[in-house]
Amino acid sequence: MQFFIDTADIEEIRDLAATAMVDGVTTNPSLIAKSGADFKTLLAQICEVVSGPVSAEVTALDAETMLAEAAALTPIAANICIKVPLTWEGLKATRALSDKGHMVNVTLCFSANQALLAAKAGARYISPFVGRLDDIGINGMDLIADIRRIYDNYPALTTEILVASVRSPEHIHDAALIGADVATLPPAVLRSLAAHPLTDKGLAAFLSDWQKTGQSIK
Ligand code: E4P
Q: Which end of the chain has fewer beta carbons closer than 10 Å to its terminal beta carbon, N or C?
């Protein structure tokens, strides 16, 4: 399973990239606004740090303008992945961009039928938003399981499932069991994957016992 990080904070990206756990980055207009950075400058900085796909979202609503925006974003780096919304216009843009060999991440997916359309349009990634479904009382992970099953029914569909709107370590555990290809994690969730209270307790006990030996390793 690949891990992308869901942030536009360049310092967080640099720090986590050093762990070699970061296979890519996803941004969205809200994350860019929160960063306060210039969009294209920031994308260039992220692409210098991370060699995997870096999602850059278009903001137009019609396919023609989406393609014009994509044309302004793709020259930034070879690993730019154009992110488009799951609308008919977005699907048209997806077809055109994937036919030209560009990676496309189709975002704001909330149903299995939407995921099927994105795959037929040639998307490299489909981003189902599990947390936002959970927020309205619908189990987001059921959607991941449905998409996995549908895509596996049709081997010609090569779109990868990119679990988005991740809120907890449980989302990652469940997505990995289902066989999602990628998850995009907020930095805090990625860090929390390494934490376990029994690890902390066990380490404290080992260090305490080690001190009693009076020894030093180096
Ligand atoms: C991913 O591509 C999305 O930008 C992101 O996961 C949305 O997460 P949120 O629902 O926590 O805003």
A: C
